[in-house]
Amino acid sequence: MLSYNGYIYLIAGMGLATYIPRWFPLYFLPQRRLPDWLVEWLDLIPAAILSALVVPALLTAAEPRHLDLLRPELLVSIPTFIVALTTRSLGGTVIAGMLLYWIAGKIF
User: Fold this and answer.
1) C-alpha–C-alpha distance, residues 69 and 90, integer Å
2) 3-state secondary structure of 3
3) Burial class, 105, CB count within 10 angstroms (exposed 0-12 / middle 13-18 / buried 19+)
4) Residue range 37-77, pLDDT digits in tens
5) pTM for the full predicted model
6) Which one, 19, 38, 46, 99, has the greatest CB density within 10 A?
7) What is the 8-class DSSP label of residue 100?
């Protein structure tokens, strides 16, 4: 069991572990021009991270994970994605997704 000081050191260490990797590029990169290919590659990281988080939740179920293409989440995500593409409205997409998920919960 950690003492009070141990918890303080632990929290401070976790803070540094998250702060330093964010500070490092902000401190050293403003003076430099990054190559265009690197900037384009860095622009793809948010989409890749979001896909890595969302796709397994939509396509797999239970533990151990197995493929399940009839999950309500997947069936709701398709029309919600279409709403997002056509309206380009975050609020409208969230409301449509919540409504569709509620309807899917009633049906399935």
Assistant:
1) 26
2) coil
3) exposed
4) 999 999 999 999 999 999 998 999 888 888 888 889 999 99
5) 0.62
6) 99
7) H
